Amino acid sequence: MNTMAKIIYKALGLLVIFVASLWFFGQGLETNHEVAESAQVMEDESFPVLTIETQGKTINPLYGYAATMEPSVVRETMTPLDESKTITLHINKSKNYLTEITYRIIDKESNEVYDTQSVKGFTSDQKEVRLVLSYALATSTEYILDIGGVMSDGREVHYYTRLKYYIDNSGFDAKMAFAKKFHEDTFQKSKMESIAKYLETNVKKSNSTLAKVSITSSSDLVTWAGMSPKVISDEYVSVLEYNMETACIQYNYFVKANTNSGEETYHVKEFYRVRHAFNQDYLLNFERTMEADFDPSLANQTLSQIKIGITSKTTGNLIPKNDGKGVFFSRNGVVYFYDMVNNSITPIYSIFSEEASYLQRAYDENDIRLIAVDDEESLYFSVYGYQPRGAYEGDVGIILYKYSQAEGIEELVNLPMSTTFRQLNVDFDPYGYVSPRDVYYFTVANTVYAYNISGQRLEILQENVKDISFQTMESSNCYVWSSSLAEGYGDNITIYHLENDEHQLISKPDEESYIRLLGTIENNVVYGFVNKNDIKKQSDGTKIVPCYELLIADTNGKVVKTYEKEGCYIQSADGKGNVVSIKLCKKVNGGYKDAGEDSILNRSDLKASKFAYTSRSTTKSLLEWYIKFPSTFTMRGEIKEQESDEKIRTGNRSVRLESSGIEKYYISALGRFTKAFENVKDAIHEADKQMGVVISGDHQVVWERSGAFNQNNLGDLTLVKSSNSVSNLAACAAMVLNQASDQDISASELSKSKDNLYDMLAMHISKPLNLKECTLEQVIYFVSNNKPVIAMTSDSKAVVIGGYTMKNLTIYDPDHGKKKVNRRIYEEIFKSKGNRFLSYMEDYKKAGE
Question: What is the pTM (predicted TM-score) of this model?
């Protein structure tokens, strides 16, 4: 018994010791979840930056991507090659160095790899490597150079540039020299007269700001007005587009200048589109942007305002605390909090490290969006684009953060994407919202997402949305969409309240009508009623959906205003501020004609914020911006600058976003993607204005300003004649389809379908283009690229353009045969019929499958 008792007591003792040990050591342990949430310091930038020397010029800084990108996605630089096909890669000093590189030459359209070469045995001291590209490059043809490297820490890195090879002298030296001289002359007031002859100065322009200067500005503004800046960094030069006659060139650098507030630093970018022909230089376009580095010490204490300085970014990114005693804002990739009580400012988050070089900071392909402050005064914000440092260095995507004064920054989700900032910047809708239910709502590339933060779950709320079918009411945190996302009109419209997950339905008035979403205006939705019999599809495939009545309703669906005009229909409506602008049309001979415009004034319920941007002008810096506060606030003394905490709590929550099914067209101009459109003709019009390029969603060139040759002829285009069994339109469609698809498409079968032209093309090719309202000059680009163009000559007749010179067109008329016609005369004929054209894009992905 004693022995048994001893065993029991001993076992109990060991158990007590074991439990006590667990308790003791457990004090210093965290759960797996807490370990993942532990705060980590953001590492500094570590990827090497490459620059390229070609034909004696060092150009094109290349920044490393952590993952392999689809080669055609990264179209930031172009490297012209001469007959030597030799380039030198300069490797800039960084925390990591390259140990080897492998480069590939890739077809820009099909992504076919033509050549692969490797160079190994790099050392930490190696600053350059010479590459002789041995592949037989075709002249004046665009290729992609994909440079893959292995860094000293074992990570892979990828760099991309495009190549163009010329045997003959392409004027590279002359184009670069002209941009360099113009750039240098801008710093000398004595050169105003010589600069003026290249400008297209608009005398109606105010010339009041240095934030954005263009070819239409005065020579005084181009030469920095009353400012005398000094360049403090290297001047990083990139060639963005290039051909025999023209080049798009960017200068990227930093300057310092004395202002009325003291010495300030600015980030400057200059875009040049130059032409060199017959030994003459021409400036086709010019734009200079200037952004002040934020400096808290420059605050205006007299007016109690924080100085932002010279900037063109004066909307958004300004969110006050709920108690009104502080404000969050972001400048130059940094999120700040200004404490009005303590007159102190704290940098909360910074995209770049304090140690980042000018070369690294010059690549500001990223941005910050402040989203909201919750009831506990925590700030939600997103960082998107290229990540230059930290755990996601070299990645592109969207990261959602939460900041609280007590707990610092927490990463809520990382959304990596296989794209570039330039595309993401136009795809990522400005509106985002975090609801009281802990759900982050955002839209990327026509897909509306809802990310449940606490449940760590991403859902698609709506996908393949279009401007005609989906709208946002930001001030009331509502989404609005049509029951038909493809058409924009249907049986009902949904108003979705993000705060409480409630849905409000507005239905069509009767079975003979549809309800059409026209837009939003402040806290109201604008819609119209459409008689089903009034909808008309034209022979070129375009559809007219006229509304017989327009209505404006609040977020609860209550109608606050209606509009009708006798004898007219509402063709479209656009809401800005508290005004709805209306385009009208009338029914004429079974079709519709424009009938002028009208407008409605809507009552505004929005209240101006007590925190806002305000501007003033000085003789030196011209227009400068400040943050103003409520009138009761007084800034006492100099602002105290607090140190930044670089730690971020992360839970390793990464979710990859899916690609959109909507075809979009991007405008590449002025060194960036400026806009995106769902309609190709709108994209072409905008690219023409901006002297740019239209890029498809799969990164192919759709259209290029000045991209057409002076003449071209599609010699292999075969005439198809109309007959009793073949309509004129079916014959035109067959000609284009036989050229595009290398198939024998039966014109008589197309005729039997009785489809419109667009639908006939869409039956057999994946990317038909409706180019209605484009000019003949614009659609000639497609013929130049060996794609015939259908041109309507009436509602039921068309011809096919199969060739052109500066004076003539070669047209294939199903009713009258092939003939040469006067280009100017037919330009007027096409214009009088509404400039209704159709063509197509190559589907390279499909061809390669």
Answer: 0.90
